[in-house]
Design brief:
This protein has about 425 residues and is mainly α. It contains 17 helices and no strands.
Amino acid sequence: MAQETKKSGFHYAYAIVAACIAITCLPCALVLSCAGIFFTPVSTFFGVPKATFTLYFSIVNLAMMCTLPVWGKALSKVDARVTLSAAVVAAGVGLIGMSRCQEMWQFYVCGAVLGIGVAPLIILSVPTLINAWCVKKVGFFIGLCMAFTGIGGVIFNPVGTALINSGAEGWRTAYLVFGIIVLVGTLPFTLLVVRSRPADKGLLPYGADEAPEACANDAATEVEDMPASAAMKTSAFFMLAGFCGLITLNQTIYQFLPSYAQSFAETLPAVAAASGVVASAAMAGQAIGKVVLGVINDKSVKLGICVGVGAGIVGVTLMWLMPGVMALLLAGAFLFGVVYAMTTVQTPLLVRTVFGSADYTNIYSRVSMVGSFMATVAAVFWGFVCDSAGGYPLMFILGYVCMAACAVLAFLSLSWMKKNRG
């Protein structure tokens, strides 16, 4: 079929965006964003410490890290419908399996299945499909789709909590319902809507019919794409891997913001009572920040880096130095959510900018391995920091260091691109 494109009206790329939203809002949100509501009821039911049960979540991240290169290779060679549908089945079966567990080791096995399934869905699917289907508004569409990991959490956390509270073993019902939602809600999109590339539908990518200058920016510099084998031998690859690891480490500070607020129980009881609101403000910043950073990156990747890191630095400063002013504390949490958003928006866009789109999936899957590994140890690391003599001030200081290092690594990778590929 001859390739054609639509100059106005509906483009099939919008259907691809809808499929990506289904992926992030359902399996990604239900496996990752809703995990916390199960920690207390499940550990209480089995009479074990929370750490014993939550070890399954570390196994999720380890499984993601180990299987990302395999998924990256599969997505680059196998029909995306097959690859992503298999991942959805694994995620759904993993959740249903959690509802049937009778021993802790069974949760760990299900955690491995969940990690295998969610790895390509949360990390690879959106940037891979959007990069293939769009040559303009790439950042906006990636940011919009990734925002639904948080939106899905907002929607399904209350649903899951209600199911958990429905009976002594309500957590089993919640896991079962979540697994069914993943399978029934996502498979129609991955099986029937997803296509690996526009050519599969006889189309050109969204925006390909417009004048080149309409799509040009420093995020889409005309340079020769690099294969993964060559990219992984460059200093820029290690810079981006370091960026991915450090931005993931910094992101995990979010998990300790409620504890930080609660640390003021004696001096600022109103702040301690608002710990949940602080977490919600950061989640709002993450969701909005993903879209905003996507739009900014469509204009300038460098500006996206500055806005993301700048927001995080201002956010940490407000939370640390002015916790007694509720409006500023919440504003700080919201701004920290913006730098949190860089993990899933800035990282893939930087990889695309520096190395191009031809072998993007294989390169990005390997960069993301560092982030997945960091996710397995970050919470423990920050826990030790908060419990140390330095406490929360030391956590914020190290947050500054992480964000500054991320900015340096990002700009150095862009400088390498300009020097070696520009």
